[in-house]
Amino acid sequence: AMEKSYVSMFLLLVAISCALAKDVDKKETKETTAKPKLPQTLSRGWGDQLIWTQTYEEALYRSKHSNKPVMIIHHLDDCPHSQALKKVFAENKDIQKLAEKFILLNLVYETTDKNLSPDGQYVPRILFIDPSLTVRADITGRYSNRLYAYEPTDVSLLYSNMQKALKLLKTEL
Q1: How far is it, in rounded angstroms, from Cα 150 to Cα 127?
Q2: What does the pLDDT average to over 11-30?
């Protein structure tokens, strides 16, 4: 399993390198003053206009330095529940707008950080981490057997949990 994840990580890096190499040729002088646009692959369809981080470590670093909470979405491409949640998440204007206030990361693989799977490794699950790098285990969905799972019908709960993650931020720091 470890070898498999190394291989997929390597292929991902190769793909990103190729994509970036192609972009270099296309760059024009006036474009360099604009904000750099990340390859859309980082969004994986969760919101192409949002800025997504590439790694868990990068998300933590950005959170700490920008004082924004992290929102991590664990999902799988071949999971129907993940796909259904992604569709609702990407199409919900309020969620997309609120998501701009977060450091965003969506993962199709598990991290080694046990704090990100407090009640097991299942998908989809969404966790929040505050800038003090504390996983907000208190911000949960509605299912007692999968605390951080959200179904497409839970979109309003997800929205209020996103607001909660932002609110707690202001009162605690």
Answers
A1: 11
A2: 51
**Domain annotation covers residue 3:** no
SS3 126: strand
Model pLDDT, residue 21: 57
Closest CA to 70 of 117, 20, 29, 130: 130
Q: 3-class secondary structure for 116-139?
A: HCCCCCCCCEEEEECCCCCECCCC
The CA distance from 58 to 10, in Å, is: 18
* Interatomic CA distance for residues 39 and 41, integer angstroms: 5
36-68 tens-digit pLDDT:
554 447 999 999 999 999 999 999 999 999 999
Paired with 149 in beta bridges are: 125
Query: Is residue 44 a part of any domain in this protein?
Result: no
* Domain count across the chain: 1
Q: Is residue 31 part of a domain?
A: no
> Cα–Cα–Cα angle for 25, 45, 115, nearest 5°?
110
Domain containing residue 150? 56-166
Local structure of 45: helix, strand or coil:
coil
Is residue 129 a part of any domain in this protein?
A: yes
Tell me the whole-structure pTM to 2 decimals. Answer: 0.74
- CATH code for the domain in which residue 63 is found: 3.40.30.10
Q: Other C-beta atoms within 10 Å of 77: how many?
A: 10
Q: What is the pLDDT of residue 173?
A: 46
